[in-house]
Amino acid sequence: MNKQQIVFGGGCFWCTEAIFKMLKGVESVTPGYTGGHVPNPTYEQVCTGDTGHAEAVSIVYDPEQVKLHDLLTVFFGSHDPTTKNRQGADIGPQYRSSIFCATAEQKTEAEQFIADLNSTKEGAPIVTEVEMLTVFYPAEDYHKDYFSNHSYAPYCQVIINPKLEKVQKQFANLLKNN
User: Fold this and answer.
1) Structural domains counted in the chain
2) In the chain, how long is the greatest CA-to-CA distance?
3) Residue 177 falls inside a structural domain
4) C-alpha torsion 145→148→153→159, nearest 10
5) Which residues are catalytic, by number?
6) Can you give the residue range of the structural domain that contains 97?
7) CATH no. for residue 53?
């Protein structure tokens, strides 16, 4: 199996992790931090917005089961890629819409995907940053599987559940067990 990695920053990594864990062909989803200048950052440091890091998820996937195009479709369909440094009530550069590519081919495909979106949609342009992945720092253990472990929490009920329901309706053909 030829597994590949890509890293998406789409706001709070608790939401993004829960979304991508549902997709067939996705082997693992790890919340963490990337894109900044502070080595081995902590959640508290990243929350200040001063580290340059984005909250992100590292996705390891099997391209024979799920295409990068499908991952990009779900990524852009599950967050607002038109607002700089903000997703809902989460504000700051750590919540920016971003893609960190492990290969030059991924970067080319992501940039073309954005160009295609911008040419066919009305409204604000896509502000998602696309760059090569340099280093990914896994988040502290208590962030891993956050939704699965805290689905009863108000944040999960009010913010994550509606996103999951949207993805389940729009991308049912990409979900595991379908």
Assistant:
1) 1
2) 42
3) no
4) 80
5) 12
6) 4-172
7) 3.30.1060.10
Give the integer Cα–Cα distance in Å for 161 and 169.
12
Whole-prediction pTM value?
0.94
Residue type, 162: P
Query: How far is it, in rounded angstroms, from Cα 156 to Cα 135?
Result: 28
Closest among 59, 53, 54 to 75, alpha carbons compared: 59
Q: Is residue 178 part of a domain?
A: no
Using the 8-state DSSP alphabet, how is residue 139 labeled?
P
Q: Which amino acid is at 70?
A: D
Encoding tokens for residue 60?
A: 């390891």
Tell me the HSE value of 42 on the side-chain side, using a 13 A CA sphere.
2
Q: Is 160 helix (H, G, I), strand (E, B) or coil?
A: helix
- Read off the pLDDT of residues 9-34 as tens digits, 9 standing for 90 and up: 999 999 999 999 999 999 999 999 99
